[in-house]
Amino acid sequence: MPGDVYSTPKYLFDDVPAPGELWEVAKGVMWLRMPLPMALDHINLYLLEEDDGWWIIDTGIAIGPTQALWEQIFAESLGGKPVKAVLSTHYHPDHVGMAGWLCERWQAPFYMTQAEYLSGLAFSRMQPEHFSWSSERYLQRAGYAPEQVERARERFNGFGDYIKPMPTAYRRLVDGASLTIGGRRWRVVVGSGHCPEHACLYSETLNILISGDQVIPKITSNVSVMAGEPEANPLKDWLASHERFLDTLPADALVLPAHNAPFHGLHTRLRHLIEHHEEHLLALEEACVEAAPTAMELLPVLFKRPLDDSQLGLALGECVAHLNYLHQRGQLARELSGNGQYTYRSIDDTLRLRLRRNRAEPDDQAVLQV
C-alpha cells in the first residue's frame, strides 16, 4: 500500500456545480448537487454512464426543488438515455428520499444493503405514536428533564415527510461484491457506525471511491446511539471501519463524498477522523474522573457551541455513543441514580493520578515565578 501523498485534502475543483448541474469528474462519472433545507445545505449525488443508460448513486431529499431538478436533468443532461438503476449508500433521507419515485419513474431496480433497506422502511413509516415508554426512558437515563422529554415527543415523527414511498423490492449489496457499470468493476465496500451497513463503491480502474457519508473531507458524520437500541456501540464499528479502509483502500484514491467536494487525501482524512474521536473519548474520560455526570451534563465536553432542540437529539446520541464505547470497554463505570439517570465515573486510577499531577504543576510553577 503506498504512503499517503496528501498531508491535507486536495480538492479536485476550485468551485462546485450549481443545483442540478452535472460536472464530469472522470470518464463516465458525473457529479451533481441537490439542495438541502438545513445548515448542511447540499448533498452530492453521482451518475455513472453506460452505453445504454445511467446509474444514479444517492437521490436527494423528497422536499423542495429536488424532483423538478431531476426532471430538468432527465430532459437536458442524459443524452436521451434512460436511468437503468438507482443505488442508495444508506437510509438517511437525503440519500434515499427520492429512490422510490426514481425507480417508479424509470421502472429501474434499486440497490442497497439489507440493513439500510430495512432501516429505511422502518424509519420512513414511523408515526408520532411510536414514541414509546422506551423512548422516554432512554432520554430520561441520558439526563433529559421532563419538559425536554415532552418537547422531544412533540417533535418525533420519523423520516416519512422527507422520503417518497421506498421501492417495494431491492437488490442486495454485500461487502466485497462487485457491480459492473460501464465496463468497469465497482467493488462494494461496507462501513458502519454512521448507519448500520453503509455501502461505498470503489473502482480500481479509475482509483475512485464513492464514499457517501462514510468519509467526508470537512465535517464529521454523526455517530449516534438512538432510543431503539440504547446499548448499541456504533463508535466501535465506526473506528473499526476506518481502520479497515486504511488497510484495504489506496491512499491516493479520488474520494467522491456525499458532502463538501471531491478530494484526494483519503488516508490523511481517515486518520484525522480516528484521532478526532479518540480525543473526544479521552476528554470524556477525564471529565468523569472526580465527578459523576450524566450524558446531558457531558455535552459541553464534545460541543462548544450552544445547541437548540433541533440539534440536541443528535448531539446527545453522539455523546451516548462515546459513553457506551468507554463503558463497554471497561473505562467508565455507569450507575443508575435514584432519579433514573445514568451517571458515569472513570475507573482508571492512573488517569486520575495523572490529572491531579497536571493540575499541581501550574501551581508549583507559579510559586517559582514569584
- The SSE order reads EEEEEHEHHEHHHEEEEEHEEHHHEEH
Q: What class, by secondary structure content?
A: alpha+beta
Determine the N-to-C terminus distance: 55 Å
What percent of residues are in strands?
15-25%
Compute the number of helices. Answer: 11
Please tell me about this protein's structure.
This protein is α+β, with helices and mostly antiparallel strands and 370 residues long. The chain folds into two domains: 10-277, Ribonuclease Z/Hydroxyacylglutathione hydrolase-like (Metallo-beta-lactamase, Chain A); 282-369, Winged helix-like DNA-binding domain superfamily/Winged helix DNA-binding domain (Arc Repressor Mutant, subunit A). Helices cover 38% and strands 21% of the residues. It has eleven helices and 16 strands. The protein has helices spanning 66-76, 93-96, 99-106, 114-124, 133-142, 146-155, 234-248, 266-287, 295-302, 309-328, 349-369, and strands at residues 10-11, 23-26, 29-35, 42-50, 53-57, 83-87, 110-113, 171-173, 178-181, 184-191, 198-203, 208-212, 254-257, 263-264, 332-336, 342-346. The strands form three sheets. The chain has a seven-stranded mixed β-sheet with strand order 1-14-13-12-11-10-9. Helix 9 (295-302) packs across helix 10 (309-328). It is globular, with a radius of gyration of 23 Å. Mean pLDDT is 92; it is low at 359-370.
Give a quick precis of the structure.
The protein has 370 residues and is an alpha+beta fold.
Task: Describe this protein with a few key phrases.
alpha+beta; Metallo-beta-lactamase, Chain A; Arc Repressor Mutant, subunit A; 2 domains; 21% strand; disordered C terminus
